Amino acid sequence: MFYTFSGKKRTWAAGTLQLLTLYGTCVAYVITTATCLRAILKSNCYHKEGHKAPCNYGDTLFMILFGVIQIIMSFIPDLHNMAWVSAVAAIMSFTYSTIGLGLGIKQVIENGTIMGSVTGVPAKSVADKLWLIFQALGDIAFAYPYSVILLEIQDTLESPPPENQTMKKASMTAIFITTFFYLCCGCFGYAAFGNDTPGNLLTGFGFYEPYWLIDFANACIILHLIGGYQIFSQTIYGSVEGWASRKFPDSGFVNNFYKLKLPLLPSFKLNIFKFVFRTVYVISTTGLGILFPYFNQVLGVLGALSFWPLAIYFPVEMYFVQKKIEPWSRKWIVLRIFSFLCFLVTLVGLIGSLEGIISEKIG
């Protein structure tokens, strides 16, 4: 479908950006999971030792542990075998979002007032404030990453009804629910803590009690990310392995399967190329997470890279072709202006987030 509307070059460009965004999202999941594991330990430490106790824990070991789990899970054959993973991830996402929202509302009620201001967090200079705004735009753009996997999900659907009709209903429902929770969590989080609002309400310790609920919410995030990592990775696995099979049809390394039987486990088939590629892939995402463990800044870069080209530009171009929109017509002009404004959001978001990563790395 995309090739029909956009041509070979644009299809390759969109596919490359899509895979790059999926890869970057997996790196972000490595970072976030380690942050949540550390938050669970810190939550229990603060509960026992007091809120001012020096409860410091590193990230590296947790990232390595997450990588080991993902290497094992990466040998789930494909998306068709992962419905249960997606379902668990969705339930966990709903659970921890509800907990974060509830804690935010509770804190606002306890404060008896709304914290913060319309102008947001103050900065030392106008330049610093602009960098923060640019980075925030990247973070906001990352809030709707489903577009990078929408076509893959649609491709797995059965008809009737037509796949595009099913996806239209699913997308509208998902956008409504996601927007509701994101706005509520963001607004109530800032209303609860004002300028001291942490980047992640459940790991930045705006909340200390009830500590068991904080632990449970972070455990839900971890389970969500374990499943989410696979949902995004399987698309890359399928693309690379399919390309390799077509490129090297006579290669035994790429195409041969070998039956293995390990103690206490059922027999299974192993492909050497898949084993090597998927293992190296997980190791690379884990290594980048260890090298750049900056949650908000990494999300900003990913959001900026994917937002305009995948969520705005290519869909708008496809719409022009599909609906045969005349150049310089009113609808054509409005959509072109809209696309350009979104491009500016992507540009400043990318610049601000890269500046944030560089500042954190050399600071």
From TrEMBL:
Secretion signal span: none
Domain Amino acid transporter transmembrane: 5-358
UniProt KW Nucleotide-binding keyword: no
GO terms, molecular function: symporter activity
Pfam families: Aa_trans
Residues annotated as transmembrane: 20-41, 53-76, 82-105, 174-193, 213-232, 275-295, 301-321, 333-354
Topology term for the membrane: Multi-pass membrane protein
The keyword Ribonucleoprotein belongs to this UniProt entry's keyword annotation: no
UniProt subcellular location: Endomembrane system
InterPro entries for this protein: AA_transpt_TM
GO biological process terms held by the UniProt record: amino acid transport; auxin-activated signaling pathway
GO CC annotations, alphabetized: endomembrane system
Domain of life: Eukaryota
Keywords recorded for this protein, A-Z: Amino-acid transport, Auxin signaling pathway, Membrane, Symport, Transmembrane, Transmembrane helix, Transport
UniProt xrefs under PANTHER family: OS05G0424000 PROTEIN-RELATED (PTHR48017)
Family: Belongs to the amino acid/polyamine transporter 2 family. Amino acid/auxin permease (AAAP) (TC 2.A.18.1) subfamily.
Main function: Carrier protein involved in proton-driven auxin influx. Mediates the formation of auxin gradient from developing leaves (site of auxin biosynthesis) to tips by contributing to the loading of auxin in vascular tissues and facilitating acropetal (base to tip) auxin transport within inner tissues of the root apex, and basipetal (tip to base) auxin transport within outer tissues of the root apex. May be involved in lateral roots and nodules formation.
Protein name: Amino acid transporter transmembrane domain-containing protein
UniProt organism field: Acacia crassicarpa
